[in-house]
Amino acid sequence: MRILFDQGTPVPLRHALPEHQIETAFERGWSTLQNGDLLNAAEQEGFDLLITTDQSLKYQQNLPARKIAIVVIKSANWRLIQTRLDAVREACQAISAGGYVEVEI
To answer: What is the dihedral of CA 53, 59, 65, 71, to 10 degrees?
Structure first.
């Protein structure tokens, strides 16, 4: 699965998802793109999943119309996320195209 990390997603999380191809918005040169533009760019480039810490995304975008799946991690604190890596992995494995899941941290 091709996964894009949004700006607030801690980069060390990529080591917890070794079976996936992961890139960051920064690495792609998309660090200045806002939500709608970022989702459009990610879909156009063939990403399957966006992992973000932006909890307002579901209120700002028409997510059911999207092809890309979205996992929202409800904290950007890496130390806290480390305690919930299994939940993040499960969310990534269970989600399907156009899906939306929030992972409580």
So the answer is: 20
